[in-house]
Design brief:
Elements (H helix, E strand, L loop, with lengths): L4 E5 L9 H7 L9 E5 L5 H7 L6 E4 L16 H7 L3 E4 L2 H6 L4 H14 L2 E6 L3 H5 L3 H12 L9 E5 L13 H19 L8 E4 L4 H8 L6 E4 L6 H13 L1
Parallel strand pairs: 1-2, 1-8, 2-3, 3-4, 4-5, 5-6, 6-7, 7-8
Helix pairs in contact: 1-10, 5-7, 7-8, 9-10
The structure holds 1,3-dihydroxyacetonephosphate.
Length: 248
Amino acid sequence: MPKKLAAGNWKMNGSSASASEIAALLPVLPNVSCQVLLCPPATLVTSMKNWTEGSSLLIGGQDCHANESGAHTGDISAPMLVDAGATHVILGHSERRSDHGETDAMVKAKTMAAHAAGLVAVVCVGETEAERDAGRALDVVGSQIAGSLPDGVTGDNTVIAYEPVWAIGTGRTPTLEQIGEVHDFLREALDQQLGAEGANLSLLYGGSVKPGNASDIFAVANVDGALVGGASLKASDFSGIIKALDAA
Ligand code: 13P
């Protein structure tokens, strides 16, 4: 069975002053049974671990290098994220794919590195608006899944996030039918690629998820949670999304 997961991606936001926002979020956690993950910038992973000591909050990075160590200025490896307190890492986010030219092959290598270090990889896929308009959304996410997942993927070490690029940070979301179509397709593709294990991977939707649309999105079949950007920065907004997932 896929686990329910509410994940927040802080992107390049947050500082030591974010401790108060985290303090405001913590009281929600004992009252829900879904998993809750926050992925702050790497500078805050250890701080967030300390701020949330004794709570069930999971902490993740936003990227990792495919190598364990070496001459890669500015990069962070999967074992370093583990050492800093992370259990998860987002890989292949569309902003990494567009800003840093990350290919499916690179995402696959990073996913292998994450698994080797014991991290859960949150692998992101999603089409651009032009690709959707051309009727290619399913083709695009299908080939991203095929190209980004290494051997050995299980429901315990990998989560898939469907994030249509045109819905990220825009306030626009696909219709519930469009979300359902892609999630059903992804479940089928995972079943074909991974056999019975495909049913165990959590499928998150991401792109302009807010407290006001979360319940509707979580009611869609094969949506097991969300990867939330902007709304994860505010405890009040993220709490609403967590509660909506828990109730779904
Ligand atoms: P928004 O929720 O801000 O649209 O961002 C989504 C996202 O990219 C999460 O990874």
